[in-house]
Amino acid sequence: MAAQVAPVTEQLTINQVVNEQTAQTVVRGTITVPDPKPDVDEILSVDRTATVKDISIVPDKVIIEGTLTLQVVYVAFKPDQAVHHMHEQINFTGYVDVPGATPDMNVKVDIDIEDVSVNRSNKKPRDFDVAAVLEVSAKVTENRQIEVVVDVPGYDVESEMINVDDLVNQESSQVIVSDEFEVPAEKPPVEKILDVDTQTTITDTRIVKDKVIIDGEVTIQVTYVAFEPSQPVHNMHQSFSFSHFIEVPGAAPGMNVEVDAYVEDVDVETKGAYADSLTAYIVLELNARVMEPKQINVVTEVAGVSFEKTLLNIESVVGEDSAQVVLRESFETPDPKPDVEKVLDTTAKEVKITESKVINNKVILRGYVDVNIIYVAALDDQPVHSMHQRINFRTFVEIPGAENGMNVMVTPIVEYIKSDYESCNVHVELVMKVRVRVTESMQREVVTAEMIEEPDVCLPGETIDYTIKQGDTLFELAQRYSTTVNAIIAANPGVNPQNLKVGDTITIPCGAKG
Questions:
Q1: What is the structure's pLDDT at 514?
Q2: Which class for 148: exposed (0-12), middle (13-18), buried (19 or more C-beta within 10 A)?
Q3: Which of 223, 389, 428, 472 can bridge 419 by disulfide, Cβ–Cβ 3.0-4.6 Å?
C-alpha cells in the first residue's frame, strides 16, 4: 500500500469561475416627446446608458432585467430652432446561456451598447422608434474551499506565485431608504403616479473590525399624470443618499470588499389629492463579500510522486490603485432656461466610465459626470429652476504589471462638488476619486493535500496495474517506473498515447531503477 506524504498546505476559499458567456440582445421600444417639450425638427445626439435592474440564475442560463436610458438632444421645430433635450427610458429583458450555472451561484453582468438608432415613427409625429443592440456578458462563479499544497518537504517541486482573494466571509442585510421631496418648481403637481423606476449606486465602502460600512445613492424616476386640464404625462428624478453597515465576522481594515445592491420594493405616495410633494419608501438588499488578498506559492508539480490535480479557474489580482480627478468647467445657462440669481444646490446625478483601456502598467479612463444645479432664477417672481450639464473627463491610473487584454474594474466616487454664478456663467468645481482594480483570468492545475501519495512499489521484471489520472503522460509514467514509453505501449495494445483517458487502467512493466 502506498505511504502518505506530509505536504505543507494552506486553506483557501476562492471564487471559482464556472463559466463565462456573451450574447446579443436587441431592445426595441418607442419614446415620446414629453409635454410641454416642443416638437423635434432634427436630432443632434443620443447619449445612451444601460443599467441592470435585476439578475436571476436558472439552470444553465442567466436572465437579466435592465433599463436603456436615452438622453436625446434635438433642434426644436420652432422659428427660433432652440436646442432642447429629453430623457426617456426603455425596459428590457435578455438572457445568456451559461452551461453549468445553477441558482445558488454568483454572477456578474456587463452590458455594452453596440448600436442605437432613433427614428421618427410613421404613426405619430411626436413618437420615435428605438432599436438598440446590446452585448451582454455573464460570468458565473461559485465559492469553493480548497487546501492547496505550498511545499512537499524532501521532494523536488515546481511552484508558481499567484495572487488570490481569499473569501473571509459574506453577509446580507436590508435597509429602508425613505424621504419626502418636492415636485420641481418647473413641473406641474401630481394627479396620478404611473410608474416608478429605480437605480442604486454604491458610492463608498469602508471596513472596520467585523463590519462593512456602505454609503450609496438611490435615484428614482417617477412618471406621472399632471394635474392639468390636458393631463399630460411628465417625469421627474430624485436622488436619496443612504448609509448602512453589515456585520461581517472576520472583516478587518486592509481587506477587499464587494457590495451588490438590489431594490426589493419601492413605493411612492402623494400627499393630498393633487400633490406637489411626495414620499418615497425603498427597500434595499445589500450583499457584502469580504476578501483578504493573498500571494501564495502553490505547488504545480512534485517529482517522483503520483498525484491528481485540481484546476483553479480564478481572477488573479494584478494590482489596484486610485487617482484623484479635479474638474472645473464654466458654461452659460442653456436655452430656454432663465439666468441664475443664486445657486441653491449642486449634485452629481451620474458618473459614468465610458472607456477603459489597459496599456503597459497603466489604465487610461474616459467618462463623464452629469451635474444637476438647483437655482433661483433671475426673474421678478424668483422661481426655482434646475439645469443639467455633462462634464467629460480623462485620466489614468498606474498599475504595475497591467497589460492589454486584462480585466478592469473601475469605481468612480464624487467626493466634493460645488457651483456658483459669476459674469453670466455657471462655474462648477468637482473632485472625484477613481479606484481601479486590474485582474487576469487564470487557469492553473495545482496539487491538493489529500491527493499526494508515494508511487506504487514496482519491482524490476514485474508489472503493475495503474489507473490513469488527470495530467498523466506515458513519458512521465515511464520515468516514474524506470521503463520506456515503447514498453508501456507494447504491454497495452490499442492504447493511444496521445489520448489517455482518466479512469482507464493500463499495465506498466517495471524496470530497474538507476
A1: 57
A2: buried
A3: 428
Amino acid at 465: D
Cis peptide leading into residue 336 (ω within 30°): yes
Give the residue from 70, 61, 108 showing the smallest Cα distance to 92.
70
Count the helix, strand and coil residues of the chain and give each as a percent rounded to the nearest 5: 5, 70, 25
**Residue 58: what pLDDT?**
93
> Using CA atoms, how far apart are residues 279 and 152, in angstroms rounded to an integer?
64
Distance CA 207, CA 216 (A): 15
Beta strands in 303-399 (DSSP E): 306-331, 340-359, 362-377, 384-398
Mean pLDDT value across residues 152-169: 88
Mean pLDDT estimate for the chain = 87
Find all residues with CB under 8 Å of 229, minimum gap 6, and list them.
none
The set of cell numbers assigned to 308 is 491528481
CA 10 to chain centre: 30
**Domains, the chain, ranges and CATH?**
14-143 (no CATH), 169-293 (no CATH), 318-440 (no CATH), 458-509 (3.10.350.10)
Cell of 323: 487617482
pLDDT in tens, 92-138: 999 999 999 999 898 989 898 999 999 999 888 889 999 999 999 99
Question: The C-alpha cell of 499 is what?
Answer: 489520448
The DSSP symbol for 275 reads: B
What order do you get walking across the sheet with 277-302 strand by strand?
A: 157-182, 277-302, 256-270
Give the Cα-Cα-Cα angle 122, 127, 129 (nearest 5 degrees): 70
CA distances from 184 to 222, 375, 390, 421 (A): 12, 11, 20, 21
3-class secondary-structure state, position 32: strand
User: Grid coordinates in use for 413?
Assistant: 466616487
Instruction: Evaluate whether 363 touches 322 at the Cβ level (below 8 Å).
Output: no
Task: Count Cβ atoms below 10 Å from residue 258 Cβ, excluding itself.
Answer: 18
Phi, psi (rounded to 5 degrees) for 34: -75, 150
DSSP 454-487: PPPP--TT-EEEEE--TT--HHHHHHHTT--HHH
Q: What is the 3-state secondary structure (H, E, C) of 438-453?
A: EEEEEEEEEEEEEEEE
Q: What residues pair up with 170 in beta bridges, in sequence order? A: 289
Question: Can you give the pTM of this predicted structure?
Answer: 0.69
In angstroms, rounded to a whole number, what is the distance separating the alpha carbons of residues 314 and 326?
35
Q: What amino acid is encoded at 86 in this protein?
A: M
